[in-house]
Write a structure and sequence with these properties.
Layout: H1 6-18, H2 24-29, E1 36-37, E2 48-52, E3 55-60, E4 63-72, E5 75-81, E6 88-93, H3 104-123
Antiparallel strand pairs: 1-2, 2-3, 3-4, 4-5, 5-6
Length: about 120
């Protein structure tokens, strides 16, 4: 079993979104920047979501970022990057929370979304 730190996830998302981790041939042949409006991850990403293969486009008031959200094994993460990969952020908390969480987890998701919005504002400046 291997584990990734938030720093590992951050390096991956910026490399994946920018195409640095995908060959030019693959970029031309695949999806690379095709997104379908809608689609959700859990928790829902910031802004208006559009789904692509293994990645989402989030159109926010502050600009557009790309990435993914998710939760597993007691953690919830948001990983975001600008399209060129020059700015990215990963927010990770040690609570497994979803859009349907109850009680204290609802507050955790709300606080996490505030932190993610701040990360988006910073990344899109």
């Amino acid at each position: 079993m291997s584990f990734s730190t938030p720093g590992d996830v951050n390096r991956f998302v910026s490399g994946y979104v920018s195409g640095r981790l995908v060959s030019n041939h693959t970029q031309k042949k695949l999806w690379y920047r095709l997104f379908v409006p809608g689609g959700t991850s859990d928790p829902i990403g910031p802004g208006l979501n559009s789904a692509g293969p293994a990645i989402f486009r989030y159109q926010t008031r502050c600009g557009t970022v790309y990435g993914h959200t998710g939760n597993v094994l007691g953690y919830t993460q948001f990983a975001l990057s600008t399209l060129n990969g020059s700015r990215s952020a990963t927010v990770s908390v040690d609570i497994q929370a979803t859009q349907d969480s109850k009680g204290a987890k609802v507050l955790a998701v709300q606080q996490l979304r505030r932190v993610v919005q701040a990360a988006v504002r910073t990344a899109t400046r």
